[in-house]
Design a protein that fits this description.
The structure is a single chain. The protein is of the alpha/beta class. The protein has one domain (16-210): Rossmann fold. The protein is built from nine helices and seven strands. Strands 3-2-1-4-5-7-6 form a seven-stranded mixed beta sheet, sandwiched between helices. β1 (49-53), α3 (59-67) and β2 (72-77) form a beta-alpha-beta unit. The longest helix has 18 residues, at 16-33. It is globular, with a radius of gyration of 16 Å. The chain starts with 15 loop residues before the first helix and ends with a strand.
Length: 212
């Protein structure tokens, strides 16, 4: 298996122009590449408090909020510019009363603890940016309420995607920084997560862990 190459300068996407570009791109393409994730999330049958890791400009968060009208969603995002754009977008969609975004990183155990407990924690295309994935998974699993679900959806590192993945430079770097199913499984097993499932959804992988 090709060696994982962590991102070095793309962990936080800064700048208002960058945030606005990502929102425009997601509005144009998001319903295509998020379709499988939305079905998987809905299949979990959860409501209540949701935590989204790496929401970017908030496009996906708004879709999840519309799909789950009873849910309250907190988005944790390392880019202050993305947080500002995301809060504006939530207001535009009339979601400000139950959707909010905060600035921070998933490896910050104190911040995660301060946010409280959640019935569902999810992330899409964010895992490969985490600087310490085992610690991040530990923080998130600990933030689940009883019977809560952790859903992480990202690229899967495989030799043919590693070398042949089409698309812009940033996407190829994301694939090279991603994890294999086996690596994610080892992390989840190390948490003591007795119930977890890893699904291959080419070119993505979905990890679903349930809190006993």
């Amino acid at each position: 298996m090709p060696k994982r190459i962590p991102h070095t300068d793309l962990e936080v996407l800064t700048g208002s122009e960058t945030a606005e570009y990502y929102l425009a791109m997601q509005r144009r393409l998001g319903r295509f590449y998020l379709n499988g994730f939305r079905k998987l999330l809905t299949r979990q049958g959860k409501t209540g408090r949701f935590l989204e890791i790496g929401p970017g400009p908030g496009y996906q968060t708004a879709i999840v909020a519309q799909d789950h009208p009873e849910a309250e969603i907190v988005g944790l995002e390392p880019s202050q510019d993305m947080v500002r754009i995301a809060n504006d977008y939530a207001a535009e969609k009339g979601l400000s009363e139950r959707v909010r975004f905060v600035d921070g990183v998933v490896e910050d155990d104190g911040l995660i603890a301060d946010l409280g407990k959640f019935d569902l924690i999810y992330s899409t295309f964010s895992l490969h940016h985490w600087t310490d994935a085992p610690k991040a998974f530990h923080n998130l699993y600990g933030a689940l309420a009883p019977a809560g679900v952790l859903l992480v959806y990202d690229f899967e590192r495989r030799w043919f995607t590693y070398y042949l993945m089409p698309g812009p430079r940033g996407m190829r770097e994301s694939v090279k920084a991603s994890y294999t199913r086996g690596e994610i499984g080892e992390i989840l097993a190390g948490l003591g997560a007795a119930t977890f499932v890893l699904e291959r959804r080419f070119p993505y992988v979905a990890a679903v862990a349930r809190k006993e």
